[in-house]
């Protein structure tokens, strides 16, 4: 499980996947853009980023991804909603759009993972010895 801005960092989801997570979950209070905001929240650039992060985290780690987000407004903030279920191939199976609600999809997680990982194994094919730890990373 991750919280909000964590989804913007590939390493967070990757660490969970390497630890064996088959389903990633991220709950957020992700707002729309505050500068140069689109009148149509569906077209908002921060909503596009929110959706892109969800799809990328599922695809790059070949896991099922569940995303929940605040919707509506709070003061001057407009929240992008966009609860969704994303399959391990990065395809959105269910999405609320900017409305509040629950995204529901039915899938066989084991089969979905197997299908996604059959020809391309993003976790299997990693070569961490070629890039080593991130600069400034602390090893324990």
Map the helices and strands.
Elements: E1 2-3, H1 10-18, E2 23-28, H2 45-61, E3 64-69, E4 71-74, E5 77-80, E6 84-86, E7 92-95, H3 109-117
Parallel strand pairs: 1-2, 2-3
Antiparallel strand pairs: 3-6, 4-5, 6-7
Helix pairs in contact: 1-2
Structural description of this entry:
- The protein is α/β, with parallel strands linked by helices.
- Helix content is 25%, strand content 21%.
- It has three helices and seven strands.
- The protein has helices at 10-18, 45-61, 109-117; strands spanning 2-3, 23-28, 64-69, 71-74, 77-80, 84-86, 92-95.
- A five-stranded mixed beta sheet has the order 1-2-3-6-7. Strands 4-5 form a two-stranded antiparallel ribbon.
- A hairpin with a 5-residue loop joins strand 6 (84-86) and strand 7.
- It is globular, with a radius of gyration of 16 Å.
- The model has no long low-confidence stretch (mean pLDDT 94).
Bulk shape: globular
What is the mean pLDDT?
94
- Poorly predicted spans: none
Rg value: 16 Å
Determine the N-to-C terminus distance.
Answer: 22 Å
User: What would you call the structural class?
Assistant: alpha/beta
How many strand units?
7
Please outline the major beta sheet: 5 strands, mixed
> How much of the residues is beta strand, in percent?
15-25%
Contiguous helical run count: 3
Order of helices and strands: EHEHEEEEEH
- Strands ordered across the widest β-sheet: 1-2-3-6-7
Percent helix, as a range, is 25-40%
């Amino acid at each position: 499980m991750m919280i909000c801005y964590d989804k913007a960092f590939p390493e967070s989801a990757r660490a969970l996947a390497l630890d064996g997570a088959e389903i990633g979950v991220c709950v957020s209070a992700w707002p729309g853009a505050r500068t140069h905001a689109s009148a149509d929240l569906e077209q908002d650039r921060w909503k596009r980023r929110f959706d892109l992060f969800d799809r990328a985290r599922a695809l790059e780690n070949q896991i099922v991804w569940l995303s929940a987000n605040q919707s509506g407004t709070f003061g001057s903030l407009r929240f992008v909603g966009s609860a969704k279920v994303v399959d391990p191939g990065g395809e959105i199976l269910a999405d609320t759009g900017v409305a509040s609600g629950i995204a529901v999809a039915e899938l066989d997680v084991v089969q979905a993972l197997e299908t996604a990982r059959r020809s391309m194994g993003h976790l299997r094919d990693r070569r961490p010895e070629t890039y080593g730890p991130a600069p400034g990373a602390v090893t324990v």
